[in-house]
Specification:
The radius of gyration is 20 Å and the shape is globular. A hairpin with a 4-residue loop joins strand 10 and strand 11. Helix content is about 45%, strand content about 15%. The chain has 17 helices and eleven strands. By secondary structure, it is α/β, with parallel strands linked by helices. Helix 14 runs antiparallel to helix 15. The termini are far apart. It folds into three domains: about 150 residues, Rossmann fold; about 120 residues, no CATH class; about 70 residues, RNA polymerase sigma factor, region 2, helix turn helix motif (Rna Polymerase Sigma Factor, Chain: A). The longest helix has 25 residues. Bound molecules: nicotinamide-adenine-dinucleotide and magnesium ion. Nicotinamide-adenine-dinucleotide binds next to helix 1, helix 6 and helix 10. It catalyses: 2-C-methyl-D-erythritol 4-phosphate + NADP(+) = 1-deoxy-D-xylulose 5-phosphate + NADPH + H(+). Its cofactor is Mg(2+); Mn(2+). Keywords: Isomerase, Isoprene biosynthesis, Magnesium, Manganese, Metal-binding, NADP, Oxidoreductase.
Amino acid sequence: MSQPLPRAVAVLGATGSIGASALDVIARHPQRLRASVLSAGSQVDALVALCAKFRPDHAVIADGGRFRQLQAGLQDAGLATQAHAGDEALEALAASEACDTVVAAIVGAAGLSSTLAAVRAGKRLLLANKESLVLAGELLTRAADAAGAEIIPIDSEHNAIFQCLRSRQAQHDVRRIVLTASGGPFRGHSRNALAGVTPEQAVAHPKWSMGPKISVDSATLMNKGLELIEAHHLFRVGGDRLSVLVHPQSLVHSLVEFVDGSTLAQMGLPDMRTSLAVGLGWPERIESGVAGLDLLAQGRLDFEAPDTGVFPCLRLAWQAMAAGGTAPAVLNAANEVAVSAFLQGQIGFLSIPALVEDALAAQPAAPAESLDALLAADAQARRLTEQAIAGHRSRA
Ligand code: NAD
Ligand code: MG
């Protein structure tokens, strides 16, 4: 049965990089798509400005202390948009009649509760928030299956794989899935050269323009590690059928190799609007504003193996995926805390993998029987990593 048009889309994390790309695609299709719910973490002014442009029914600020400010901002702008605040309001709206599609574009584990609420309510989920899959992948995909919710991956690699498979199910005819990685801004650097890199250098990604956290993850290669775990859950494949290939031009977004020797790849310019248009239009193709690929102008495509000696985060993620249970939750939580400390100038770049490794060693993988068990492992890893950083600063 086709959905009534226009589709009502909730953009969670609307003020971020993915949020902006999603709204750009939505604005190109007024007959087909409508932004009905917009949310932000704490930036009230940016959220009100988006409401003035997109006229959603609801706006949510996650920071509960900013409700009045949001309400006043919407009122002053003469908007009929209803103001809400806090995580519970976000979860309720993601599950409500206010939307039929949810773009999960909040950064970090903070995105899990609204993402879960959306799939439990059977929404179409356009999932950019990879951390929620790393933290609770099995729970999230099981909840989606139980509710008949469709998950369309937005991360460019997983969106590429989804396009090659035309589903989220890698059947027995899939021999191997290859995730491509740009290698980030420090590709080819020695470990010594990485010791002194600054947050400004780390967020200056050569190919993609993204939020600060994922930009640092790309520089450490933790992003690819998180994506391995993401692929494992999304496509239900074990580590033996997954691999990573560095491809600095970022034009081949990933590849699927089948048992007959065929390899399908999805290619395109590095612009997240393509993935978002796939999700927003699926199963139809819609305009995204992204130009086609001119391979003659690009000239060449290069490939190399990732260097896990210089970038241990990728190795740590493999280990966490193999260990399973609570290990990926610990990996993700320690990484979030370490990246935030690095961005604030509290620790050096090489401390990121060191802190993640320590957290994994301190919390051996336990069975992840429930959401509570996962959230407890996440909280414990955050505490231990924060303590380690505080100790490091008091010694410095
Ligand atoms: P961003 O930092 O640009 O935006 C994050 C958004 O989340 C903002 O709207 C912010 O207000 C909101 N937010 C932050 N903390 C919050 C909280 N505690 N509660 C509620 N909302 C909160 O990040 P981004 O680059 O757009 O990335 C968003 C997600 O998409 C991440 O999980 C990232 O890994 C994934 N992703 C991004 C890209 C990209 O190109 N930017 C590509 C693939 C995947
Ligand atoms: Mg990606």
